[in-house]
Every structure is written in C-alpha cells, then in structure tokens.
C-alpha cells in the first residue's frame, strides 16, 4: 500500500511539473507586450524598457521559467505590478471566499445527487425515475450563469431572503458570510448535482445486475438493505471519480459565478488580472488550480483502495 501511495505521489509531482511548463509556455506565446499593455500605448520606449526589466522580461526564457518554478516550490508566486503586492497574499485573500464556496457547492451537490440517484435506480423504468432523470437532464442543460441570474431575481430581488451579491467578509460574522454564499453555491451545485445523480443511478444499475445482488435478494434481504449495504458501496468508484472532478471544476468554475455575484474570490481575481495583463497573477492562480486538481485526484485514487478491498490487495 505504501508503494502504491508513493507511486501516485510521484505521478502527481511529474504531472504538476509538466503542467507548469505548459502554463508558462501558453502565457509566453500570448500576443502583446505585458509592459506595454500595463503602461498604455502612450508610454515612452524608455519607460517600457524599465518596466520590462523590473518584471524580469528581459531575462532569457529558460532562466525565467526556472526562477518561477523555484519560487513556486518555496511559496513565492512572484509580485503583482498591478496590485503592488505579492501574488501569494492576493491568492490567500481571495481563497477565503472561493474555497468555502467550492466546498459548500460540493457538499450540496453530493447531498442532493446521491439520494436522487439511489431513488431513481430503485424505481427503474417507473414514473418517478423518468421525472427524476428528466429533471437531472434539464439541470445539465441549463447554464449555471443563467440559473444564477434566475436565483437572484427570485430569492434576492423578489423574496429578499438573501443578498444579491457582494461579500461582507468573515469578520462580520460567520452567518453573514455564509448567507452571501448561499445563492452562488446553489447556482454552482445544482448543475453538478444533476450530473452526479445520473452517474450514481447508472453505477447502481450496473451493480444491481450482478450475481451477488441476486443471491442477497434470494436470501430474503429487503430490497432497501441490499441497495444500501451491498450495491451502493460497490457503485462508489465511478461516483468518487466524478466527485473528484467536480471539486476541481467547482473551484475553477467560480470565475463566472463570482463575477455574476460580485464576489472577491479567485475567479474575479483571474478575470481582473487577464484584463490588466497581469500575467504573473494568472500563472499563480492557474498553477494553484492545477495543483488542487492533481491533489484531489491522488486522494480519489487512495479512496478507491479504501472502498474496494480488491484494489488494496492489488496495491
């Protein structure tokens, strides 16, 4: 098992290194001079050259990449010239909004999707199954930003139950902070819950056709107990895969939702940095998202071994 864990960690580290090279290369091939964009077209060549020197853009490409990766290893993401602050501090300030939002969305989508998937699989081919899966299909088709605007119109403007946007900060109380994240988390969670419910149903239906399920039913066990204790655990591997992918998507998918709700999170930071051509901030945030995807996938691989004893034996 230890060798299995070490192998997954080494693969994750190699993937992260390859991703850093891709992110750096993509940022380098973007058209336009960042220094020229930041200073404006009326800037003198001397001012542009001075800013390029301060940003390190006059250094060789390979040296800049090595310096950037070396800084990432010690937690130094560089310095933003737009905000005149370290990128790590900017990310930390915005992460206290984006991370709770992603976690709330993940918990909400899981709490909704798995019971709906179980309910639908237990009633395969009946009217409740058709209604549940039809609703899930509608949830997959609706764009989350349109759904967010609908939520604002109904619950913030019409009923005035929650704020329509903005974030008061955690210093004003945990409830006030959570209240401002309710609508964004719902807007993010429901489309993902629709996908997860369909995957849960399909995985359960595959398992319910196995011989050991028929044997358990032949012994006289109630259908609900067979579904919960025998079928659900064996159907969890594809569900865990989707959960791991969804967390990464929710953390990265806040770019649109945070701009709709005017939340000061990572998504809004990336959007502002792109418009201001502050590429060092974009690189730092993208690498953080890439690292989160890799870490979550490693944790999901380890969860496979906990759920399925056969994988532990193979490891």
UniProtKB/TrEMBL annotation:
<dbReference type="GO" id="GO:0071916">
    <property type="term" value="F:dipeptide transmembrane transporter activity"/>
</dbReference>
<feature type="transmembrane region" description="Helical">
    <location>
        <begin position="181"/>
        <end position="199"/>
    </location>
</feature>
<dbReference type="InterPro" id="IPR035906">
    <property type="entry name" value="MetI-like_sf"/>
</dbReference>
<keyword id="KW-0813">Transport</keyword>
<feature type="transmembrane region" description="Helical">
    <location>
        <begin position="235"/>
        <end position="257"/>
    </location>
</feature>
<protein>
    <submittedName>
        <fullName>ABC transporter permease</fullName>
    </submittedName>
</protein>
<feature type="transmembrane region" description="Helical">
    <location>
        <begin position="140"/>
        <end position="161"/>
    </location>
</feature>
<keyword id="KW-0472">Membrane</keyword>
<dbReference type="GO" id="GO:0005886">
    <property type="term" value="C:plasma membrane"/>
</dbReference>
<keyword id="KW-0812">Transmembrane</keyword>
<keyword id="KW-1003">Cell membrane</keyword>
<comment type="similarity">
    <text>Belongs to the binding-protein-dependent transport system permease family.</text>
</comment>
<feature type="transmembrane region" description="Helical">
    <location>
        <begin position="285"/>
        <end position="307"/>
    </location>
</feature>
<feature type="transmembrane region" description="Helical">
    <location>
        <begin position="95"/>
        <end position="119"/>
    </location>
</feature>
<feature type="domain" description="ABC transmembrane type-1">
    <location>
        <begin position="95"/>
        <end position="300"/>
    </location>
</feature>
<dbReference type="Pfam" id="PF19300">
    <property type="entry name" value="BPD_transp_1_N"/>
</dbReference>
<dbReference type="InterPro" id="IPR000515">
    <property type="entry name" value="MetI-like"/>
</dbReference>
<dbReference type="InterPro" id="IPR045621">
    <property type="entry name" value="BPD_transp_1_N"/>
</dbReference>
<dbReference type="Pfam" id="PF00528">
    <property type="entry name" value="BPD_transp_1"/>
</dbReference>
<keyword id="KW-1133">Transmembrane helix</keyword>
């Amino acid at each position: 098992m230890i060798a299995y864990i070490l192998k997954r960690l080494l693969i994750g580290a190699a993937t992260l290194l390859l991703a850093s090279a891709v992110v750096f290369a993509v940022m380098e091939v973007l058209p336009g001079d960042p220094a020229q964009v930041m200073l404006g077209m009326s800037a003198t060549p001397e001012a542009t050259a001075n800013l390029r020197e301060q940003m390190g853009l006059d250094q060789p490409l390979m040296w800049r990449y090595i310096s950037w990766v070396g800084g990432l290893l010690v937690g130094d993401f560089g310095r933003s010239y737009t905000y005149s602050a370290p990128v790590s501090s900017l990310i930390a300030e915005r992460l206290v909004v984006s991370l709770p939002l992603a976690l709330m969305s993940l918990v909400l989508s899981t709490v909704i999707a798995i019971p709906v998937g179980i309910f639908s699989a237990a009633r395969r081919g009946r009217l409740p199954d058709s209604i549940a899966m039809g609703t899930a299909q509608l949830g997959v088709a609706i764009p989350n930003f349109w759904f967010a605007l609908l939520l604002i119109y109904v619950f913030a403007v019409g009923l005035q139950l929650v704020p329509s946007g903005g974030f008061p900060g955690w210093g004003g109380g945990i409830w006030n902070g959570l209240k401002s994240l309710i609508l964004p988390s719902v807007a993010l969670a429901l489309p993902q819950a629709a996908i997860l419910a369909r995957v849960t149903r399909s995985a359960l239906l595959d398992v319910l056709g196995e011989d050991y399920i028929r044997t358990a039913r032949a012994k006289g066990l109630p259908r609900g107990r067979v579904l919960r204790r025998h079928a659900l655990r064996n159907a969890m591997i594809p569900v865990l895969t989707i959960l791991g992918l969804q967390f990464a998507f929710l953390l990265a998918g806040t770019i649109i939702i945070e701009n709709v709700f005017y939340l000061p999170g990572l998504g809004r930071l990336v959007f502002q940095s792109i418009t201001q051509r502050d590429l060092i901030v974009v690189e730092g945030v993208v690498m953080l998202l890439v690292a989160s995807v890799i870490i979550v996938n490693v944790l999901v691989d380890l969860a496979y071994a906990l759920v399925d004893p056969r994988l532990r034996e193979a490891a």
